[in-house]
Every structure is written in C-alpha cells, then in structure tokens.
Write a structure and sequence with these properties.
The structure is a homodimer of 366-residue chains.
Chain A (H helix, E strand, L loop, with lengths): L12 H15 L23 E4 L4 E8 L3 H12 L4 H16 L5 E11 L9 H15 L3 E6 L12 E11 L15 E6 L8 H9 L15 H5 L7 H9 L6 E4 L16 E4 L7 H9 L4 H7 L4 E7 L4 H10 L4 E8 L6 E4 L4 E4 L7
Parallel strand pairs in A: 3-4, 8-11
Antiparallel strand pairs in A: 1-2, 2-5, 3-5, 6-9, 6-10, 7-9, 8-10, 11-12
C-alpha cells in the first residue's frame, strides 16, 4: 500500500479555501456597518485566526470554530470499550476555539457551544453529561464563562448516532497594547509549545488508518496504550501562556495555533520570511504510530498533524529564554525550535533535521 | 390520515430541552472566571435568548444559533426548478442569529458563519456564492460586520450534498440603559411584528408535509406560487426596529423572537402572566396551506409555526400606538395583538379568537 495523504483520506482543502476566499470577499462589503457603532476594523485582520474590532479603549474579538470529526473516534471507542471519552471531547471543542482566539492576544470571556445531532435521543445518552462537564471544565481553564449555545436536532442532515460540535467565543484585548500584531523580524526565535497529541487536527486521516488496522483503535501503540485512547487525549489550552506573557509584558511578534495544514501554519503571517526549524523534540508516541501505520511519509505528516507542537510564538532572540520560562511557569513544555530568516522575497518552512521544505504555495489561506 | 404534529415529524424537544438544562447547570460552574476580567453576569440572564456580560460602561452580548433544516428545501427546489434560493438561505442564517441577539437590546456588531459540509465539493457549487452574498447582505441589513467563520468538511457526519448552517454574533448594548429587561406589568400591550413566512422554524414538519403531496414542493398555494418557493421566502431581520425604538427612547418591557415553540414563546419571560391575544391578522398564505395540507390542527400550528408573527414586544398600554408607529417607520408591519394580564400565579398564552390556550407547562426552557 502506498503512503497515505490527507487528500487521499477525503479532505481536500482546495474547495474549502476557495469558499473561504469567496466569503472574505463578500464579508468585505459589510465593513461599512462598523462606523455607526463607533468601531473600526484593524488593517490586515482578515485572514488571521480571530476577528477583532477596535473600540476606543479595547479590542473585541470573535471566533467561530468546529471540532471536526474527532468525536467519531470517541463514538467508536465507546462501542469497543464501554468507556466514554466525551469529557475530553468537550475540552477539545473549547480548546480549538480559544486557541485560535488567543493568537491575536485576546483573552476569551464567553464561549458558546453548537451541538447538532441527527437524532435528539443522543442528548439523553449518558455521554451527554460528560460532554457538558468537559466543556465547562475547559471554559474554567480558559478563564471564560460558558455563555450559551445551540443544540438542534437535524434529521436527514446529521448522521444519526453522532453529534457535530462547534462553537464560538467572544474575547477582549485590554489594554490595547496586549494585541499581538505581525512584528516578525529577521532573527526572531521560533518558540514551540508542546501538544498533548493530535489535538483536533488530521482526524479524518487517523480514522482511515484505523480502518486499515486489523485491531483498529484497539491496536497498541509504543507506550502500551491503545491507538484510540491516545487519539482521544484532550487538547491543551494555551490561554494561560498568553495570560502569563501579558502579565510579564513579553513582546510576542506573532502567534500561531497549529491546526489544519500542520507545520505549514508556521508561515501563517502575511510577511515573506523563511521559518527555519533546527531543533525538533521527539513527538508523543501517537505520531510515530501514525507514520508507521499509515504509512504516512514525513512530508505529509508535518503538513497535516501538529507533530507534538500545538502552539508557536515568535519573539526577539533576546527574549527567547524569557519566553521559555514564561511557558514553563504557565505549565507548558516549550523550546526554541528555530529562527525566522529574511531571505529576500522567499516564504517557506524548512524543517532542517528532516530535510523537509514547504514553500509558500503549499499554504493558501488569504 | 390523522393530524400531523411536530413531534410526529421527528422533532422531539424533550431531550433537547433536557440537555439544555444540563448544559446550563454545568455552565453555572464557569461564572467565577468573570471576576478576573472585571465583568459580571447580570442576574436572570440564563435562559434568555442572548447571553450578556456587564462591563463598566456597556454590556457585551453573545449568541450562537443554527438555521436548522431549511436549506434541505432549497436543495430540493434547486433540483426541481434549477433555481438557487441560497441567497435567501444566507439571509435566514443571519436572521435567526441576530433576531435572538436583539431581544435583550443588544445590537449585532460582528456575525460569523459556521458552514459544515459532508463533501467539500459543495463549496465549488454555484450556489455557494449565493450563500455568501446573501449572508453578507443580511449582515449589512443588520448593521453588523461579517467577522469570520468556519467551513469544515465532515465526512461520515454530514450527509453529502447538503450543508449545515449556523453561526454566532457578538453584540453590544450602549448606553447600558438600552438593555431590555423583564419589566412586564399587568395591562401591558402585546405588539406583534409581522413575519414574511415560516422564517426558520417548523421546517422539519414542512418537509414531511411536502413528502405527502403528489406534487411536493411544486404544489401551488393560494397566492399562486409554489409551496417550495413560499417556504423559502427570506426571514425578516428585526434589528432596525430595535435600533429605531432605542433612538426614540421607547421603553420595551420585554422582547421575544418567535422561533421554536411558536406562539408559546410569547410566555418566555420568567414572570407569571397570562398573555391574552385578541387581535389576529390573516397570516401569509403559506400557513393556511400548511394547516390544510398536513393537516395540522390550529393548536399544533400555533405551537410550532410563527403563524405570521416573527417578533413581539411588550410595552405599556400608553406606548402602544407609539410602538406601532416606531415599527412602521422602521419598515415593519405591526399591530396590538392583545394584553398582558396578571392573574394570580397563572402563566399561559390565550389566543381568544381561536379558543386556544397554552399553559406554562407547554413551554419548558429554563
């Protein structure tokens, strides 16, 4: 069997990204509304991971995000083992929302759940309480209130037996100087914050890999746990890192939440830089298992999965050690992964120890 | 064939409402987070249609809402007639979000789209541009900016060929005196604002009715249009009414967006009042068609559909005519539908001309 790719697993980002661009074009016609509210839209905010609006004394932030297909794995593990992983699924849903929000320096203040089922009976299942409790625990960890939600039953749209999880967050940046804007410079340090596992990205490919394994999700991975259990480790929430960085006035030149597009996301900023990664850490065992079992080649793996890095920030080289200390004091493992380099007009991610290079044309988000 | 009900059409609100209550209980554990943000949660806001947070000089509002199954009808009409109704679908999606937001007096400032497909190819279909353009047009009408969104492809979760539409809004109340709180009093006038048709509610039952008609969505209704076309009339957006009421300092004692639960929603406020409706207007022809074709009895129809009323506000009897004038100047048809009556501890909606009564136990939202 040849190597598996995310596209061969049925996820094609081309039409998704095309529709995103179409929406951004239509959305541009709505900006005139802001004037009557006394608000302005900061230049360049379109295409960032969170939308923000400027008020006289703060920024308001808004994110809508979805969990993806991860809970299909929780459904299957429930069937196989009788164990509910829906508390972790609730955490994952909040994590994927708030980790986007904080990339602009906003702290989440309110998070809402969107939970659509095909059959309302889902909501009477025992796992529904786990979902609610996990969602609430994650809100507490993110310092946000759970401020509402929507729970429709959508017959003939959502497959019976599952649930589509998404949600939104309102955030705020105050004082305004806490906003993270693109201030990347030649020589900046790339600080990588460890992930706990796959988080919420690449799960369609993981599901495809499970289908091809004789023991499926019950296959043991290198740490002795089952594939399914490891996939369902709860995502990390990086809010405490940003809160701590703001408290010590650590200047962050940019921040990236590593989700879709894997490490290609490191070049999310609009400017033209080469992101040269020189220091890799062994990722959690789940990733080697995925590479081996797919098989997924390294180039595809780093273009799809977070490979042990859930969040990245960029700081001046002089601030690198202070940033690591900030992350560790906030409870995250972090290291200097490499350097931002100005190389004319080139834009690329280079993973030197693996000989991998992703040029700008492999990431088309704007 | 016996009369059809929303429950027999496959929508059972009991488990949905049970899960909502479970979520509200878990959400209550997150409120402590607000203190570190210098925010407070107003008493009694849980269970209202929009969540709000109090800042020193304003309220921030947050709503997450979904369209439901209405676009399945647009999909079928596209197949039958070749005509795209996805511009209206985009308007409906925004309408259902912002009409909830304004019930607390918040004006929408940012709206985000959540659009989940089963197959990414949907996003390359011609109707996707109509959806984006309709969504943008509705944001402009609501005075809000389209501030982002999420467009996942969820294989094995969403049925291929359709799209699940939802979204969120951030709103603001400023000055704080514009907040609509429950100030209902004996003798208040019930002001009903006309709808354009079914809006986004009761569509599962409408789809079931179409299945039982020999000509389905192509069946002519009384105004000579097809059933499908009439169902797909775009929802009205009531933001301009609230903006105008605020501009003339019209005291609104409560506001209700008539969605799920039909006219039972008129008793949404927490207090114990009887809402006595005495003046009905003939609803748009689509409703008589639904009643006749289901058949749907009047009691079920008014408990499910908006029956020609999309939004309601309550004002002192002395302000009733001023409120009607306000609505008309903002472009809405409106009339005094009845009176709020304090009758001991009783809570009910009475539709006198039809002899219908809904007691408090028919609406369990809190």
């Amino acid at each position: 069997m040849g190597a598996m790719s995310y596209q061969s697993a049925g996820v094609d980002y081309e039409p998704l990204d095309a529709f995103k661009r179409l929406c951004q074009s239509a959305a541009a016609t709505t900006v005139g509304a802001l004037k009557s509210h006394g608000l302005t839209e900061p230049a360049g905010i379109r295409g960032e991971s969170a939308y923000i609006l400027e008020t006289p004394d703060s920024y308001l932030a808004h994110v809508e995000e979805g969990l993806g297909t991860k809970n299909l794995i929780a459904d299957e593990m429930l069937r196989l083992t009788g164990k509910s992983y829906y508390s972790n699924i609730g955490i994952d849903t909040v994590a994927t929302i708030v980790n986007d929000l904080i990339t602009v320096g906003a702290l989440p203040i309110s998070v809402a759940m969107h939970a659509a089922v095909g059959d309302a009976a889902w909501f009477t299942d025992a796992v529904s309480a786990d979902l609610a409790n996990g969602f609430a625990a994650a809100c507490r960890q993110a310092g946000a209130v759970w401020g509402g939600g929507e729970t429709p039953a959508l017959r003939d749209m959502v497959n019976p037996g599952t649930i589509i999880l998404a949600g939104s967050a309102v955030g705020r940046i105050t004082p305004k100087s806490n906003r993270i804007t693109d201030r990347l410079q030649n020589g900046d340090a790339i600080i990588l914050l460890a992930s706990s596992g796959v988080h919420t990205n690449g799960l369609t490919l993981c599901r495809r890999i499970a289908q091809n394994l004789p023991n499926g999700y019950l296959t043991k991975i290198d740490d002795g746990r089952s594939f399914g259990e490891a996939l369902l480790d709860a995502s990390l929430i990086y809010v405490n890192f940003i809160t701590t960085a703001q408290r010590i006035n650590l200047p962050l030149h940019y921040a990236v939440h590593l989700t879709g597009h894997g490490w290609r996301k490191l070049m999310r900023a609009a400017g033209r830089f080469t992101y040269r990664l020189t220091e890799l850490r062994p990722p959690p065992p789940i990733f080697n298992f995925l590479i081996r079992s797919g098989p997924v080649d390294a180039r595809e793996a780093y273009a799809t999965f977070n490979m042990g890095v859930g969040f990245a920030v960029f700081v001046s080289a002089a601030d690198a050690e202070r940033c690591i200390g900030c992350a560790k004091s906030a409870g995250y493992d972090a290291w200097v992964g490499g350097t931002v380099i100005k190389d004319g007009n080139r834009k690329a991610v280079e993973i030197i120890p693996l000989g991998l290079t992703y040029e700008a044309d492999t990431l088309n988000l704007r």
